[in-house]
Amino acid sequence: MQDPSDSSQPLSPPRGMRDFYPEEMALRTFIFDAWRNATRAHGFAMYDSCVVESLDLLKRKSGEEIVNQIYAFADKSGRELALRPEMTPTLARMVAARQGSLPFPLKWAAIGQCFRYERMSRGRKREHYQWNLDIIGEQSVSAEAEVLAAAARALRLMGLGDSDFRIRFSSRSLLSEILRRLEIAPEQQPAVFLALDKRGKIPDETVATQLRDAGLSREQAARVIDAMRISSIDEASALTAGDSKAVQELRDFAACLEAHGLGDCAGFDISVIRGLAYYTGIVFEGFDSTGDFRAIFGGGRYDNLLAQVGGRPATGVGLGFGDVVVAEILAERGTLPSQHAVADIAVGFMTEAERIPATRLAAEFRAENASVDAGLAPEKAKAFFSRASRSGCGRAIYIGPDDVASGKCRVKNMADRTETDRRIPR
Amino acid sequence: MQDPSDSSQPLSPPRGMRDFYPEEMALRTFIFDAWRNATRAHGFAMYDSCVVESLDLLKRKSGEEIVNQIYAFADKSGRELALRPEMTPTLARMVAARQGSLPFPLKWAAIGQCFRYERMSRGRKREHYQWNLDIIGEQSVSAEAEVLAAAARALRLMGLGDSDFRIRFSSRSLLSEILRRLEIAPEQQPAVFLALDKRGKIPDETVATQLRDAGLSREQAARVIDAMRISSIDEASALTAGDSKAVQELRDFAACLEAHGLGDCAGFDISVIRGLAYYTGIVFEGFDSTGDFRAIFGGGRYDNLLAQVGGRPATGVGLGFGDVVVAEILAERGTLPSQHAVADIAVGFMTEAERIPATRLAAEFRAENASVDAGLAPEKAKAFFSRASRSGCGRAIYIGPDDVASGKCRVKNMADRTETDRRIPR
User: Which is the most buried residue in A86, A135, A356, B125, by most CB within 10 A?
Assistant: First the structure.
């Protein structure tokens, strides 16, 4: 059905897509810069690929829910293509294609636009940008800690303090160990994860019903829900065998987070499940401390990703961090960056006769690596200085006939209103 | 027809799309950084929108040739969408939507991925990135000069000198004036532009035949082709009325380019036509001096763009600068940026016991704003230093049990092999 708003607003972007006017673009650049700087601070290499992927690749890897939400289309040769819903299948494809020659462990990062066709609800968009961090080929939990430390650095670079966000982590293998001890078969576990992931959103009785539907006995269901009430790694340990590998991993992981300076803002939380996705080990999510927003980022360890697209098995850790939720949080906190000045220096001129001298002066400043917003037409002094002030330029120069006659002009410091002389180049 | 290479290379990107592995991404980042820095040096504001546009918008603006090459598809609501072939229709839409409130003249820039479905020939791709500079609402040729000066700055930031590139410019209105003097009707002119745009690619006799097909007499056709032999603004002046507005504009434009320091690398060239596009005034193209490559950038003045998408008429100037040709030129010249170091500092460790101290040290360096490539697993000293050397890190620190015992480690300067001591945080 054609959206009725399309014809009434022929100048709006397609439904669910975003325009970035300069003020919105300044915020996006602020977020992307934090991502890029955190990528570099943690020694990840940037990669990218096209937003168009083959539908077959996405089907090989993604769950059914995601496939139903893919923007798919055929090109003029009948090739089945799609707008990627996430970066991970592409990452797996690129790494698998060069698995024999790339140096592992790989630490790769990307900022990619991703699309998902969903019903529109209160401002939910159909595209977003996601920063992805992946480490492939490293068994130890230093990999999980490294991607989380990079994500935390990005938040700090956006102005959030350590008390402003919380990292919650759990372990799929811990949960598997607990389920095994309750004699729940491996093939039942995906359905159990799915039911448990809904806890908090639906009543525990409904979760219990879904667990029964998955084939669990009444007692098993009760004990699973009971297990979800634990709140520490020590309590988790009591539910597993004494030599639990998952518990040891969680302890090592907590120690690594502490060493990264994240001890105070990260904590074990068995309710972190991360949906039906391909995670096999530690899983984690980042939230703002108020708890008023959806997750800022999430991720975990996967073991089967490369094999799913045709590569050899390799363990990996991934983290995805979208631009939408963090932008909402920054807006709510009022810590958005102040309007970015378009340039360091504004140059204006009074009459046609000063056009060329003003252009020469602007070129000279630029050759000195200053950024210059150069007037393109004669304007009145008042209009020029008001524009220069609004645009946040640090210095402003207005050239009139007298300046050209004398061969020099005044450079006005917009902060303290002081003026200095400058020669006008000939 | 399905491309046979698709099944034999299931790990390649869709046909015509590019993967950016870290080394290719480093080049792309180098080019994008030059574009962004030139954008800022010239006081343009960055904007963006989604790569998905409504097909209707693209049809309203683009020529038939482009519409045939659009990647179009319908979403699950039957909405007709497309991957944009260029940024300009989107720019026109966004400006028209806020035409009443935006401050003119606008100076806007974007780096956008654009798609075009073409037959694949010798490495031709179906997507590329294009830097777009537009100034809307300014009549004077300072606008044309400003976008060209910004493009030239980007080339300099990429390492090209003034003798390495040439800007060629002409004027659609000059050509119109000349055609009017030859009594060629305005409605014949698009066909004439189209034929003249092929000069150099096909023999002049074939051009003449196409001009006859457009309704020109044999004498008109000959005189048009003759007019295309002029090589200076003065010669152009002789073919127009004494008070030619187009000639005066070209002279003013040349003076502006001179003031921007571009006098030596820019010249009048009547053969610059810029296809059938929407240009109405000055048009220009940038080439590398060898002449071995397609145009690096191109653009010109348009007057009808906003009106075409439903806005009020406004004059504007636009320039598009793609990433593909300039990358070929940089590769040919051997002036590609050297492999970008992943980080400033590499940190490695010998045994499990140093994992946490090494992690603490990496976190401490990062808190001091250094970028750190931190080892994730124990490794041998030789392997660590060889990796650190390959990755281009300036400093390398390898922590063993003795270092942890003494509470300090050695920071090795990879350039001069000198070492300094550093405390290991506890």
Answer: A135
